[in-house]
Design a protein that fits this description.
The complex is a heterodimer.
Chain A: E1 4-8, E2 14-19, H1 28-40, H2 42-45, E3 49-51, E4 56-62, E5 65-71, H3 77-94, H4 100-105, H5 107-117, E6 118-119, E7 122-123, H6 128-134, H7 140-149, E8 179-193, E9 199-213, E10 220-224, E11 232-235, H8 241-247, E12 249-252, E13 257-266, E14 274-283, E15 286-295, E16 303-311, E17 316-323, E18 327-330, E19 335-341, E20 350-357, E21 369-377, E22 386-391, E23 398-414
Chain B: H1 9-21, H2 26-30, H3 37-41, H4 46-61, H5 70-75, H6 82-95, H7 100-103, H8 107-114, H9 119-131, H10 138-148, H11 154-169, H12 176-187, H13 192-205, H14 210-215, H15 217-223, H16 229-247, E1 249-250, H17 254-259, E2 272-276, H18 283-301, H19 303-308, E3 325-326, H20 332-341, H21 350-363, H22 373-382, H23 387-400, H24 402-405, H25 420-433, H26 439-450, H27 455-471, H28 476-494, H29 500-519, H30 525-533, H31 541-553, H32 560-575, H33 581-597, H34 599-604, H35 606-610, H36 621-627, H37 630-644, H38 650-660, E4 671-672, H39 679-688, E5 694-695, E6 712-719, E7 730-736, H40 743-750, E8 775-782, E9 790-797, H41 800-814
Parallel strand pairs in B: 1-3, 4-5
Antiparallel strand pairs in B: 2-9, 6-7, 6-8, 8-9
The chains are: A alpha+beta, B mainly alpha.
């Protein structure tokens, strides 16, 4: 079980410590941690489980804030990591963002939340809805009130009813004049195009996001026309397993507001919306680069926010790049980004230029990898379609809305 | 609201920052001590008390010790305001252990709160009271917990469950049965929320009290999907342990297939295998079955206890030892557990998915295990923070059953945003799961990786190609061609020699080629020739060393190589003084190997002496030594010995060369240099025959003078890193201490060296040890010079099966 949680700022300052058990952890462990982080660089930041001389450390980094948890006993590592993620989610939800100032300004709330979320190293209340009722988030009204009266409590006097209900994610008595439910399919396309220009892997990672504002305790069912294409799924705790097992129907009592109902994956897709043709020729100490971007398979909707990003390989000293469309930027850490936005009708966007190679090198032997970004509104490229959304008891004035969006996930073109 | 704001964008943003910070506790965190805290604590207004407590909390957050306010804070515990209460509790919990006497003052107020009508107040009081952790009040807390365990509020019962481990921590022997009883009550609670917390309490209070679980096993299984996620993780583990303890492993499961036959009692500890040469080496057969019963014992006893027990010799597990087996299809308990954990593979919490996957991995018949594959792979994409842990687990699964993940090789293709550790893990998994149908796509990927800007990753990719080739010999030719093309390509770049990473890649390419050739040397004769020919253009010392090693190893392979040997050796002798240390070692090694076969060539070669390679005809060393009279040659030996001390520095080499002409080759200076396979037999040979030997070294230090001690210690420390699986560097530190009233002693006396302390640093390109497990091998050789050496080997390895196999192979190879 976890023994201590530290919150570190991006300069390594310990902003907050919360001891969880009788086995206290000295904050000198943070010094050790930070020294390691400095000496080992970025790769250390990406290690989620670290063995220090005295403790096992779990870390996640969000918006520059490091959440560090320590333990000395055997425990499932993913439990610690998932819990830290949950803490980070709840905090950024409460504070409407996450940074050093926000945490310092609201340290009392952070303490109160941590105290409620974990007890003796084991998670206690992690359901955001219940937490919101127990500890109210800082908002303008309470802030103003505290200025005017000098007194406001954000700690609730009563225990939220949901703690004892069988749907702990839902506040019990909610009333709306207008009942609405929106279902969004948000998909990310992952693709790898290898150095020969062959599509090696193409798949969709998608989420069904629901935003519901419905009176009472509604019971919803959502079905797809083609659920068989789904390769694998994960559900929000509210989804009942049985109906999905037997009929691939999502039956659930939704939490109030925005939440992720399910995530899914569709593998082995064959077509990609955008192609990138990189050409690198190097000779006698210089390298010419030529990039072309265009639409490969028209998804039927406008593709926008097209970007292309790549890291110049270490042997390249400088680059002189121009494009016939969009803006090219070279950042200080040799990351080159080209924002195209929409592909114009009259010409194919291309980027060309010369790269100066380190002296002594005849030609380039390592090649950059291009990360592509795009967004297509109104289409779910996996082809998944929502069939219908039903309510068991239909309230008066119900509005249902459906949307779809596809954007690039890990979309890479090697050169 | 504020008409005067918002005139310009500038003031607007200013206003928003002000607005933003107004009413927050920002000023309290920045300057917690700008007012006197003590009077505020005694104020009669709750708001002032709150402010004071917040200031104290800010100081705690920043790491200051504010325990001196304890008495004043404790007084406020009786406050009616819940906010004050909460803040006081936070403070109390932080310092209670430091100030036990004052903490006792708060007890009355807790007792009162426990009877409050508001469940929130009761729960908080219980949490804090148990959290204070004082022995004195433990009986009171126990009573309170017992009462709260029957509270009408779910939340309070949950807090009661959480309080149990806190009590257990105090190690109250006399109350342990009461605590366990309460755990039992809570485990059979009708609310899933309480069950989850009770499961956590069960795990830390009484992990082996299976009767508690047995009572309500079925219900616990059924309630599992409704328990909150954190409780699920723990409960799954408990139910699994119970099922194994009750029914044993499932027939036809992976664990069962490992089990094989009934295992006899053994004294071996799974993590630290000690083994000596004299013993029979048929241990590893038994080992697999040993493993399975170990696994089941580990589950039955709970991992904490099992792992903490450092050594268990001859313990008899009367109930569990003869591991029981059950059939997964007919046993209801197993069936219901599998049924209820199956939907959890869809959980949104990656820890739950992994725990559920673990149950199926252990309990399901082999043919059904594949149902855990997709959920595990999905975790890789859907929760990026847990990627590393999930990959580590997949690696373990894949090693045991590669076919499981073989069709999903695409999921392990590497993307540029992966961290180095993840890339390395993925490569390893790809090697493990590669099959003949997928290898061509995987090889194509590997070739892409070689051009990756991250050169250490590129080197790993090359190493992976080598590993795949060993796994799938059919593809070896294709791989070799690809690798050879790389040597030519890398040559171009490394000629400019600037980049360290390139050298690493090149060395890795050659290591991989070497391992492929080793599988079937006769077929790859041309490759060796080609490499030897390119020797002149390859500048990286480690790469040269490998090629030279191959030259020596395959010196009588085919028809062309034996004819090349003399020319190559001449070339090497010529370049010797300008070579790096490791290359020198390999040159010596190669020359040594060659001379075993072609004694005449070498004896003819007086000139090799001039290069500092003093050669010994090992095939008959003792005879030669006995013939040479020690007294007559002692003076010349002394000079050459002192020069051989400095063999590494080329300058002294050349200076010694003129003198060493006097020394006859058969005067028995033996350079034990790198020495892969030849070293140990050689050492044995040398000592058995009392030959005088000098080990080659970077820095031979003649310090320690311990005459008359009959110990020869040879320590081989061998570390195989996970990431650098292929760079097998071995350092051999040897201490030779002589005590024999023999000719050699007088020999030594004339040198005024009573004892020789040698430290030989060697490169050990081991062939048998290629695997990616980190392990530490210690080889100790001790004994008297005149008797056979007593060699014992200790392998310290995370993976026991691998460790044992390794040990076996070393043993075979030494004997």
């Amino acid at each position: 079980m976890l023994q201590c949680i530290f919150l570190l700022s991006d300069s390594g300052e310990v902003m907050l410590e919360k001891q969880l058990t009788g086995h206290r952890v000295d904050r000198s462990i943070c010094d050790w941690f930070w020294n390691q982080a400095i000496s080992q660089g970025d790769s250390f930041k990406q290690q989620s489980v670290i063995a220090s001389p005295t403790h096992y450390l779990f870390q996640i980094v969000r918006e520059g804030i490091t959440f560090l948890a320590c333990t000395q006993v055997e425990m499932p590592p993913l439990m610690a990591i998932e819990f830290l993620c949950r803490v980070a989610d709840v905090l950024s939800d409460y504070l409407e963002g996450l940074n050093e100032d926000l945490i310092k300004d609201n340290f009392v709330i952070v303490y109160e939340l941590l105290d409620e979320m974990i007890d003796n190293g084991f998670p206690l209340t992690t359901e955001p809805n219940i937490l919101r009722e127990m500890i109210s988030p800082p908002n303008i009204v309470s802030k103003m009130l505290s200025v005017v009266t000098g007194n406001s409590s954000n700690v609730s006097d009563t225990l939220p009813g949901a703690t004892s209900s069988c749907v702990p994610w839902r506040t019990s008595d909610i009333k709306y004049a207008n009942n609405e439910v929106y279902v969004d399919l948000v998909e990310e396309m992952d693709a790898i195009i290898n150095r020969d220009g062959v599509l090696v892997k193409c798949e969709i990672y998608g989420e069904v996001q629901v935003n519901s504002h419905i009176t009472g305790v509604p019971d919803l069912t959502l079905s797809f026309t083609n659920p068989s294409i789904l390769d694998d799924v994960r559900f929000h705790p509210c989804v009942r397993f049985r109906p999905w097992e037997s009929h691939q129907i999502l039956s659930f009592v939704p939490p109030d507001g925005q939440f992720k109902l399910m995530s899914y994956r569709v593998k082995k897709l064959k077509s990609i919306p955008i192609y990138v043709k990189p050409q690198l020729t190097s000779d006698a100490g210089t390298c010419r680069i030529n990039l072309m971007v265009g639409i490969k398979n028209d998804p039927g909707k406008m593709i926008d926010s097209i970007t292309l990003q790549f890291q110049l390989p270490p042997p390249i000293l400088s680059a002189d790049l121009t494009s016939n469309h969009g803006v090219v930027n070279i950042l200080s850490n040799k990351i080159c980004s080209w924002s195209i936005d929409r592909i114009p009708k009259d010409r194919t966007p291309s980027l060309s230029g010369t790269l100066a190679v380190e002296t002594g090198l005849e030609r380039l032997h390592v090649f950059p990898i291009f990360q592509v970004g795009f967004r297509i509104q109104g289409v779910a490229l996996s082809g998944l379609q929502i069939d219908k959304l039903d309510l068991k008891v239909v309230p008066n004035r119900l509005y249902k809305g459906f949307r779809a969006l596809t954007r690039a996930g890990l979309y890479e073109v090697r050169s | 609201m504020f008409p005067h704001f918002g005139a310009t964008a500038d003031t607007l943003s200013k206003a928003s920052t002000i607005m933003f910070r107004i009413g927050t506790d920002a000023h309290l965190y920045d300057d917690p001590e700008d007012v006197n805290i003590a009077p505020l604590l005694d104020s009669k207004f709750d708001s002032e008390k709150c402010e004071a407590l917040k200031r104290l909390l800010a100081l705690i957050a920043q790491g200051f010790d504010v325990s001196n306010f304890f008495p004043q804070v404790v007084k406020n515990v009786a406050s009616q305001s819940l906010e004050v209460k909460k803040l006081v509790y936070l403070y109390l919990l932080h310092y209670a252990e430091k100030r036990p006497n004052e903490a006792l003052l708060s007890i009355n107020s807790f007792q009162k709160d426990l009877g409050d009508t508001n469940p929130l107040v009761r729960a908080w009081a219980l949490r804090t009271m148990a959290g204070i952790r004082l022995h004195v009040i433990a009986p009171l807390v126990l009573v309170a917990v017992g009462k709260c365990a029957r509270d009408p509020s779910v939340y309070v019962r949950k807090c009661a469950a959480n309080a149990l481990p806190k009590l257990h921590d105090l190690q109250l022997e006399e109350h342990s049965s009461t605590i366990e009883e309460i755990v039992g009550i809570l485990l059979s609670d009708h609310s899933p929320g309480v069950v989850g917390a009770a499961a956590a309490a069960f795990n830390s209070v009484c992990p082996n009290n299976y009767s508690l679980v047995g009572r309500s096993y079925k219900r616990l299984c059924e309630v599992l999907p409704d328990v909150e996620e954190w409780g699920q993780i723990v409960l799954i583990g408990i139910l699994l342990r119970y099922a194994i303890a009750r029914h044993g492993l499932v027939k036809k499961s992976i664990m069962f297939s490992l089990h094989g036959k009934e295992s006899p009692q053994s004294e071996k500890d799974g993590l630290d295998v000690e083994f000596s040469l004299e013993k029979d080496s048929s241990m590893d057969l038994k080992f697999n079955s040993e493993m399975a019963s170990m696994v089941s014992r580990c589950y039955i006893e709970g991992p904490d206890e099992y792992l903490s027990r450092s050594s268990y010799t001859n313990r008899i597990f009367s109930e569990f030892h003869n591991a029981k087996f059950t059939s997964g299809k007919s046993n209801d308990d197993v069936k219901i557990l599998l049924q209820c954990t199956l939907p959890l593979l869809w959980s949104n919490n990656s820890a739950v998915v992994l725990a559920a996957a673990g149950v199926h991995w252990i309990m399901v018949p082999c043919e059904d295990v594949k149902r855990i594959v997709k959920p595990l792979l999905f975790l890789l994409r859907s929760s990026s923070t847990s990627k590393y842990v999930v990959l580590c687990n997949i690696q373990v699964f894949a090693k045991a059953m590669p076919s499981l993940f073989a069709p999903h090789f695409e999921d392990f293709f590497i993307i540029s945003s992966d961290s180095y550790q993840i890339k390395a893990l993925k490569l390893e998994i790809l090697c493990t799961i590669a099959t003949e149908s997928s290898i061509s796509s995987i090889f194509k990927e590997f070739q892409d990786y070689i051009q990756d800007p991250d050169r250490s990753f590129a080197a790993d990719a090359v190493a992976a190609i080598g590993l795949c080739a060993q796994k799938l010999p059919k593809m070896a030719i294709t791989f070799l061609e690809g690798l050879l093309a790389l040597t030519r390509q890398e040559l171009l770049t490394t000629e400019f020699g600037s980049i360290e990473g390139e050298a690493g890649v090149l060395v890795q390419v050659l290591t991989s080629i070497k391992s492929i050739i080793k599988q079937d040397p006769p077929n790859h004769e041309k490759v060796v020739i080609q490499l030897v020919r390119s020797l002149d253009s390859i500048k990286v010392p480690a790469a040269r060393a490998i090629i030279i090693w191959m030259m020596g190893e395959y010196n009588n392979l085919g028809e062309i190589i034996p004819r090349m040997v003399t020319t190559v050796l001449q070339y090497l002798a010529w370049s010797f003084s300008s070579e790096a240390l490791e290359t020198k070692l390999q040159i010596l090694n190669t020359t040594f190997k060659v001379c075993q076969i072609a004694v005449l060539v070498l004896l003819k070669w007086g000139k090799i002496n001039c290069c500092g390679i003093k050669l010994l005809n090992v095939q008959s060393p003792s005879i030669e030594i006995s013939k040479s009279s020690s007294s007559s040659s002692s003076s010349s030996l002394s000079s050459s010995y002192s020069s051989s001390k400095l063999t590494s520095s080329s300058s002294s080499f050349s200076s010694s060369s003129s003198r060493s002409e006097e020394v006859r080759v058969d005067d028995a200076f033996l350079f034990c240099c790198d020495v892969d396979a030849t070293f140990f037999p050689l050492l044995n040979l040398v000592f058995r025959k009392k030959g005088f030997s000098v080990a080659y070294s970077e820095n031979i230090v003649a310090t320690f003078c311990f005459p008359f001690i009959s110990l020869i210690c040879l320590k081989v420390v061998y570390y195989l890193g996970v990431s650098k699986a292929q760079s097998k560097e071995i350092t051999i530190c040897s201490r030779f201490k002589f005590k024999t009233v023999s000719r050699q002693l007088t020999f030594i006396d004339t040198f005024n060296v009573q004892c020789i302390y040698l430290s030989a640093a060697m490169l050990y390109y081991s062939e048998i040890l290629s695997n990616a497990f980190p392990c530490l091998i210690t080889i100790t050789a001790e004994g008297k010079c005149i008797e056979p050496l007593n060699v014992s080997i200790k392998v310290n390895c995370e993976e026991t099966v691998f460790g044992l196999n390794l040990l076996n192979r070393i043993v075979n190879f030494l004997s």
